[in-house]
Amino acid sequence: MSVNIKPLADRVLVKPAAAEEKTASGIIIPDTAKEKPQRGEVVAVGNGKKDEPLTVKVGDTVLYGKYAGTEITVDGSDYLIMRESDVFAIL
Amino acid sequence: MSVNIKPLADRVLVKPAAAEEKTASGIIIPDTAKEKPQRGEVVAVGNGKKDEPLTVKVGDTVLYGKYAGTEITVDGSDYLIMRESDVFAIL
Amino acid sequence: MSVNIKPLADRVLVKPAAAEEKTASGIIIPDTAKEKPQRGEVVAVGNGKKDEPLTVKVGDTVLYGKYAGTEITVDGSDYLIMRESDVFAIL
Amino acid sequence: MSVNIKPLADRVLVKPAAAEEKTASGIIIPDTAKEKPQRGEVVAVGNGKKDEPLTVKVGDTVLYGKYAGTEITVDGSDYLIMRESDVFAIL
Amino acid sequence: MSVNIKPLADRVLVKPAAAEEKTASGIIIPDTAKEKPQRGEVVAVGNGKKDEPLTVKVGDTVLYGKYAGTEITVDGSDYLIMRESDVFAIL
Amino acid sequence: MSVNIKPLADRVLVKPAAAEEKTASGIIIPDTAKEKPQRGEVVAVGNGKKDEPLTVKVGDTVLYGKYAGTEITVDGSDYLIMRESDVFAIL
Amino acid sequence: MSVNIKPLADRVLVKPAAAEEKTASGIIIPDTAKEKPQRGEVVAVGNGKKDEPLTVKVGDTVLYGKYAGTEITVDGSDYLIMRESDVFAIL
């Protein structure tokens, strides 16, 4: 996965993981009821802030809060751009 | 207990202790009335912030506020991910 | 008095003083009407923050605001855990 | 006037001046209508914050805002404990 | 004009200029409709904060916001005590 | 244009440009409907804050937000006094 | 594209990209329903803040939040002036 975007400062660009189409019991959920994924792959990172380089790297799978970041669409794909401080952990 | 998660910066991953199934007087409480536990075991820690390493270590039993952290599910288990400043004390 | 708890950073653990059972005029107050004590004994202290060691020591009797701290129960006893900045004065 | 209290950090203990019992025109005001005094005598001071010693000294008469500080009772007398930044001026 | 008050830190004591009794067209305004003056003379100044001495001096005529400061009465005269940052300019 | 006012710290005094009396299509707008100008000339500047001299100079034409600053009247003329951070750009 | 404006400090001047006149399915949208563009070209930049030069350069195509910046009109063209921290990424 490669995108031609350079996030600024402490921002990272994340490709959210596809939401599960089925519940644990096998029932197919219509599109609007699907929970937003909170897991994604980092596809681009900024240069960090002065004296604070980023920890997250391109390719990392990260966990983030349900309402983290701003949705942007690049070349027809949906991404989230968020500050690294919105990232909880690397899987 | 071992999980493959690396919390970022000053965050720690906590496995909440199981809530008591019985009250002191021996009455069994149905699941929805159980108080959320405020005690847990640290299972992963971040690297701290610049110039501020973490005090809490993996394996510590910690006390934290009732509404501290964000619930995340990893491999079917529930954890809380919180900032170390949400941890009150080590038991 | 000794408890096996290590408060983090600038937090202190306080054992609130027992509330007075009688008013000045000698009337016995039922339990629910008793004012919460604002005086207590320090039973454990954290290591302070970077470059800011704590002033309060174990054994000090302290005054604190009516709504300071979080109540926690350890071995059946009730304590308050609060930041040192919530402590007004040492008696 | 002497009290056995040590305020913490940048806090000062003030003995509010008695409110005037009469208005300028000589009418005696019942107790509940008296304005709270905003003038008092400093009876104890903290050690200040790191690199910021206090300016106010024990014995100073100070002016402070109407809602400054917290009321505490020590040995039957009422005092106000406030931060030095709540003190406007020394008379 | 001289008052025996020492403002603390970055505070200044200002004697508000008397409000104009007449509008430009010469109509006399009753007392309650007069706009509060926003111009006054500095009568006492604090020592400034650490590393930040004050710019305003006793005797300066200053402009300040309509709601700046706290009114205090000293020896029967009304003053405003405000932080220097509430002063806009020196005339 | 010259005024005898010295703004404090990071404040600048701006003479707002006269609002356009006509719309692009030539209709004359009555006084109350005129948009407030967001362009003005700097007529006085402060000395800046510690270690942060001002960028704006007397004589600069500046753009600022619609609600920036406080209106003050000096010698019958209306000015705006604002912080330099309320100035967007120099024309 | 060249404009004679010098943004102050950490501000950048952006020429928003023209909004798409047609939806993906080819339906022409009337003017008021068009989404505001979130993509634009940088036409002028400030000098940055003390010790923090800007990353964005004139000519960069940038992404920014839907509500970022303030609209200003210069020589009949509409621009947005925003802080660099409102810019998410460079395309």
From TrEMBL, chains A, B, C, D, E, F, G:
<comment type="subunit">
    <text>Heptamer of 7 subunits arranged in a ring. Interacts with the chaperonin GroEL.</text>
</comment>
<dbReference type="GO" id="GO:0051082">
    <property type="term" value="F:unfolded protein binding"/>
</dbReference>
<keyword id="KW-0963">Cytoplasm</keyword>
<dbReference type="InterPro" id="IPR011032">
    <property type="entry name" value="GroES-like_sf"/>
</dbReference>
<dbReference type="GO" id="GO:0005737">
    <property type="term" value="C:cytoplasm"/>
</dbReference>
<keyword id="KW-0143">Chaperone</keyword>
<comment type="similarity">
    <text>Belongs to the GroES chaperonin family.</text>
</comment>
<dbReference type="GO" id="GO:0005524">
    <property type="term" value="F:ATP binding"/>
</dbReference>
<dbReference type="GO" id="GO:0046872">
    <property type="term" value="F:metal ion binding"/>
</dbReference>
<protein>
    <recommendedName>
        <fullName>Co-chaperonin GroES</fullName>
    </recommendedName>
</protein>
<dbReference type="GO" id="GO:0051087">
    <property type="term" value="F:protein-folding chaperone binding"/>
</dbReference>
<dbReference type="Pfam" id="PF00166">
    <property type="entry name" value="Cpn10"/>
</dbReference>
<dbReference type="InterPro" id="IPR020818">
    <property type="entry name" value="Chaperonin_GroES"/>
</dbReference>
<dbReference type="GO" id="GO:0044183">
    <property type="term" value="F:protein folding chaperone"/>
</dbReference>
<dbReference type="InterPro" id="IPR018369">
    <property type="entry name" value="Chaprnonin_Cpn10_CS"/>
</dbReference>
<dbReference type="InterPro" id="IPR037124">
    <property type="entry name" value="Chaperonin_GroES_sf"/>
</dbReference>
<comment type="function">
    <text>Together with the chaperonin GroEL, plays an essential role in assisting protein folding. The GroEL-GroES system forms a nano-cage that allows encapsulation of the non-native substrate proteins and provides a physical environment optimized to promote and accelerate protein folding. GroES binds to the apical surface of the GroEL ring, thereby capping the opening of the GroEL channel.</text>
</comment>
